[in-house]
Automatic annotation (TrEMBL):
<feature type="region of interest" description="Disordered">
    <location>
        <begin position="26"/>
        <end position="60"/>
    </location>
</feature>
<feature type="compositionally biased region" description="Low complexity">
    <location>
        <begin position="42"/>
        <end position="51"/>
    </location>
</feature>
<protein>
    <submittedName>
        <fullName>Uncharacterized protein</fullName>
    </submittedName>
</protein>
Amino acid sequence: MKSEGDLGGAARALLDRDEVEGVLSGAFYTPTDAPRSRAKGRTTGAATEPGAAPPPERPQHYKVICISMYTEDLERLDEMVSALKARGMTKANRSALIRHALSQVDLDKIPKGI
């Protein structure tokens, strides 16, 4: 069995700290006054108390999504992020690299068998 320190190192190698903190701060550590529905993650229909502050608005400029990727593609992505960080781009992460790659895509050059 691996020690807790070994598992922490593996998690750090796999997960980007900025991305994890962003998700956790928006989803888990944001206080709410109203109970939340488990099924949809929305506040229940209960009326707000008079004088209570309205819930903060969620950011509309991005969404947290889940995609599946082959392990070898993830390894390549992580190697590229590590290379960027070694070049001094300390804020490089998976999301930023994928966003940059999307901005470079020429749809006319995509093979038909994609």
